[in-house]
Every structure is written in structure tokens, then in C-alpha cells.
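Fig. S4 source data, part A: sequence.
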Amino acid sequence: MKLPLSLGLVAVCCLISFGAFAQTACPSGVAAGSALCGPSGGGEEAPPRPTGEWIKTWGAIATSSSSGDIGSSTGKFSEEEARQGAMQLCTKLGNSDCVVSHTYRNQCVAVVDSSKSTSGRAIGKIISAVSIPAAQERALEDCRKAGGTECKVRGTDCTKPYFHRY
């Protein structure tokens, strides 16, 4: 009676130990339990680490009501920096009445105006959107809705995100 019990116990021990061998990752020709063996690769892998981050940038448009001149800045890292850049460009053209008319972040912009309108005064529209065609379309539409009869695109630009590598 002791012999079958002993054989059964040995068989159970052998079956349990096979699972232990399956949990090691050993190179070919290396016995399980060797220092060259590592843990099995059956667990979850860590997600890939990011290589950097996208930094959104700012743009601004400054206009002069007396001359109609425009100063534009793009690719700035803060709204204030974009405002200052647009103002500098507008005043550099000899204008003293420049005002920041529009700021935008990570978008495109279109400037549209019409010297003729149903009201007899000039009309100007500045619109930002996800792309230049979308901004142009919306600005031209707004110009026409405001009574512009000769709406034309005066300028377009985009401020794009910057990829900063770690």
C-alpha cells in the first residue's frame, strides 16, 4: 500500500515541477535554473515610452484702421509673444494706430476685405479655422453676409505645433 502511495506522490511532484520549468526563459542549450535564464516573457509588456510632446503655438493679426496695413506673427509659444510680434510688424510699416484684431492657437487664419459694400463702407473679416481653405471660405462668406460686394482674400497663414523631443 505504501508503494502505490509513494509512486503517486512522486508523480504529483514531477507534474508540479514541469510548470516551474515552463516559467523560465533560457537560451538554447542552457539548463533550467541556470543564472543565464531569465523570467518568462509571458507577462504584459510596458507601453512604449513617448519620444517627445507636441507644443501648440500661437499666431496674431494686428491691423491699422487708418492705412489698412496688417502685421502677422505665427509660431510663437505664448499668446503675448504672438501679440507683440504682430504689433511690431504693423508699427514697422509706419502705423501708430495698430491694434491686435485676432489671436489664434494651432490653427490657420484668413484675412478678407471688401472696399465696396452695400452700406458704402469697407468691410474686413479675420477668421481662423483648422485649414487655410476652411478659413478662407468662412471669411469670404462672413464678408458677403456683412454686405461686401468685392470680397477678396488679403492674406493667409497657419501656426503649427512644434514637436519637442525628450
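Fig. S4 source data, part B ends here. The longest strand covers residues 98-105.
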